Amino acid sequence: MAKNANDNGRLKRKDYEKELGRLQSELCKLQEWVKYKRLRVIVVFEGRDAAGKGGTIRAIAERVSPRVFRVSALPAPSDRQKSQMYIQRYMEHFPAGGEIVIFDRSWYNRAGVEHVMGFCTKEEYEKFLEVCPMFEKYIVDAGIILIKYWMEVGKKEQERRFEARIKDPLRQWKLSPMDLESFRRWYEYSHARDRMLEATDSDHAPWRIVRSDDKRRARLNCISHLLSMIPYGKVPREKVKLPKRKDKDRYDDQAALKGRHFVPEKY
Q: How far apart are CA 202 and CA 228, in angstroms?
């Protein structure tokens, strides 16, 4: 067993946090490069329910600027959006120069949940699989860097995570009736995944599959790969020095707060 693994083979928290901090530091460098070069990047996250998409996205986004790394998690379409071209509501969130947009689920809803749960017709599903590679070719040809990740969790581990959500009050909000239905339809989702990969794993926009039974390793592997997909360098910066505070109109500004309503200092 590796020295950095627990008895169950999972990566130790201490080692995980140390490496995560290093990778997040590199994400900050990448962020500055994307701004400097005015790059446009789309990162798509798809996968089974409870595969760890949300935790991986949080690990990517928690130390960087939301003005550069924007997370897009679209709700169910409105009646107006249902009458639009299917891809239209996703394109509204595409990046401008100097932005990275992370899609927490994406237009691939049509190849997954919409198909399995019957929210779209068979014709709409087949048309999506036919057109999607062409649409993504248009994205890439327009100069946008498109990176697609599929988070793959095993049957037993998904069941363990769902059971934890049922029992833990801090996680119960994560469990929805749709999650329970997706758990029941494991093999239908497996067939949908296989068909999606067959139709849309193209040379210009390949899928990258992330094994996620160990969430910590999955996050580190994914972030490391993301950094390798966008060559970046050091951005020239002027040295920053704090200016002196002005003494004009100087007064005891803390005394001026006396008598105001402060939050009780319980900690």
A: 19
Report the candidate in 47, 48, 43 with the shortest Cα–Cα distance to residue 61.
43
Q: Residues 64, 28: contact at Cβ < 8 Å?
A: yes
Segment 55-70, tens digit of pLDDT: 999 999 999 999 999 9
Burial class (CB in 10 A: 0-12, 13-18, 19+), 209: middle
Instruction: Map out the domains of the chain as residue ranges.
Output: 13-233
pLDDT tens sequence across 132-144? 999 999 999 999 9
Please give the pLDDT value at position 189. 97
Three-state SS for the chain is: CCCCECCCCCECHHHHHHHHHHHHHHHHHHHHHHHHHCCEEEEEEEECCCCCHHHHHHHHHCCCCCCCEEEECCCCCCHHHHCCCCCHHHHCCCCCCCEEEEEECCHHHHHCHHHHCCCCCHHHHHHHHHHHHHHHHHHHHCCCEEEEEEEECCHHHHHHHHHHHHHCCCCHHHCCHHHHHHHHCHHHHHHHHHHHHHHHCCCCCCEEEEECCCHHHHHHHHHHHHHHHCCCCCCCCCCCCCCCCCCCCCCCCCHHHCCCCCCCCCC
**Domain spanning 13-233: which CATH class is it, in words?**
alpha beta
Give me the residues of the chain with pLDDT under 50, please.
Answer: 1-2
> Whole-model pTM?
0.92
